[in-house]
Amino acid sequence: MNKSIIALAIVAALPVAAQADATLSGSVEATVSAGGTTGIESSVTLASSEVLANGMTATTSISLNGGANAAAKAGLTGDFGTLTLGSGVDNQAGARHGDVASVMGHSTTANSGNGATYTGDFAGLSVSLAHGQIAAAGAASTSAGATYDFNGLTIGATQQEGVSSLGGSYSFGDLTVTAGKKSGTAAVITASYSTTVDALTITASVNNASTTKASVAYTLDGITVTAAYAAAGTDVSASYTSGDLTVTANSDSKVTAALDLGNADLTVERVSGATTVTYKVSF
């Protein structure tokens, strides 16, 4: 009897491994275009996270995109920050993080490759490091960035493969001013303004190179009309939403009708005289 009690006490005192929470998600998308052209794209992601005995959180994810672009990541998060290793990481993440004035010229699409990233925050200072190799290019790239916020002013610095930048951003209510300089180029100063008055939304920006952008949007009873101006010209678009259905059209004669079916979406698009039907199911 006493031996049984002692054995139970020993078992109770031993650490028990926490169960990891796993999530399966993905989508299947089928597209049919005019002329009978069809296409199917699919993606499946298995993600898991677990809180370790030391308080840190371990995460893993495995993604299969169309059976070709497989990606797997493993991460660890704690007071030190977040470290991620594997495939599908952005090797420009560091430079994107510190480029507060948007002068480095990166595209909005992340470069996905094999490598590692790190992010951390220390008393107002936020840092990001990344290193990875893009399969298509075959060359590795390292980037680093840091930002510091105080009293509404954000200062950022970046470094990537010998190219660096320094910038700052400050907001005065609806007005935001940014200034930055990339090595080997002239400084860029940009003023952006955005405000909403009742159903009218106005945005505008101009920089010291006289590059001007502006847009005006008016929304009433589910109908939104937008006029946007940039160096490439003026574009006018309109959209109408009724329940789960949204119809949009623009000055390039592109018309789209999208129906939200919960975990599925049905889209019909007509542009340049061609019609495409897309059905996507997500889980």
Helix content: under 10%
Order of helices and strands: HEEEEEHEEEEEEEEEEEEEEE
Classify the beta-strand content into a percent band.
Answer: over 45%
Class from secondary-structure proportions: mainly beta
Instruction: Count helical runs.
Output: 2
Radius of gyration over C-alpha positions, nearest whole angstrom: 25 Å
What is the average per-residue confidence, as pLDDT, rounded to a whole number?
A: 87
What is the first-to-last residue Cα distance?
53 Å
Shape, per Cα inertia axes: globular
Taking pLDDT < 50 over at least 5 consecutive residues as the criterion, the unreliable ranges are 1-17
DSSP E strands, number = 20
Sheet of most strands: 20 strands, antiparallel, barrel
